[in-house]
Amino acid sequence: MSSVGILERSDKPSPRRANARPLRFLAGALIVLAAAIGAGAIARAFGLWPSSAAPESRKLSELLTETIEKDGIAAAVAQYRELRERGFPGIRESEADTNSLGYALLRKREKESAISLFHLNAETHPESANVHDSLGEAYLAAGETALALASYERVLAIAPTSKSAGVTLRRLTGRERPPYRPMLWVHIAAGSLGLLAGAAAAILRKGTRRHAVAGNFFFGSMLGLTSSAVYIALTSPDGAVINILMGLLTAYLVTTSWWTARRRGVETGLFDRIALLAALAVSSGLFYYGLAAASSASGRKDGIPATVYLVFGSVALLADGLDLRMIANGGVSGARRLARHLWRMCVALFIAVMSFFQGQPQVFPEALRNSGLLIVPGLLVVLLLIVWLVRLRFSKAVRRSASLKTILAVGQEAA
Question: How far is CA 338 from its chain centroid?
């Protein structure tokens, strides 16, 4: 049977679709809401969201830069304190903005100036582990080891799970690293295999036996990675809620993606309804902590910015809306089925990649950590996903090949 014939047969409407209009409407509303929240959170993180300040307001870093160039760092410090006492009137002040200016000075080897700015930022945002970590880095660059130690100790007091601060403290003090727990070795092994298998599945030609084998290895590895992450977070005294929520989200994404490819028919079942409820619970948890972070003075919860919670909460809500639409339509087939498989696997791979390259900075040299290049692997995954979705949308050849017998037959020989 040709792939075109399979697609035509699979796309026939299910009798259950007739009475599914309310579900489809709700699914569409969830998708729009998820997109709006995610876009708003990203826009706010990059300073694109409309500010409550006057439209003509300027960034604090711009004013400080002008003052530093004209009158020196002492005048800029005095200007900062004076503006802070007045509540930064008509000025857009943010922790990240001031930190960026501090690093710009540090790159120009103006170490004392950078320390002054980081110190002011730490005064304004005392509960931000990121600011204290930056201050400690500047102290180290200036040779002020004792002050750097105090800053890194403060980081751990705010965010006990900060790996970079812990590694730096052990290096400076000569403390021995506590032995790894057995489950952590499982986590490391599963994560390493998952990254390799995910990269292979992304590169190999879709629909081939090798792609199917790599995909199955990726699925199994990601289940090991996420389950061990959730277990460690639950049993560790300093376990972070974000690790539990992200572990559950990643497990949901990779499982539903694998099941989409693996199932023989197009009809939905009990598994799909359970998965929908699980994703709804995860999205609720992420939004709850995201709102708690957004309403806090530091804009963080457990050291994690509100944007992270809200963006991935939106991903979970988007998946919920698409699950509900699939159930309302009586299943998913053809190109939509392939799109469902692709985007969920790629987002799961993106989370794994960013968890390693951004979440484990201590394993990379300092020069690489400060270069900004550690975000590149994650961007490549996003680019790969966009390319495939565009091809799937506009390439007739790819759409014709999106059949159960070829691309989506995970673990089976291509036709």
Answer: 23
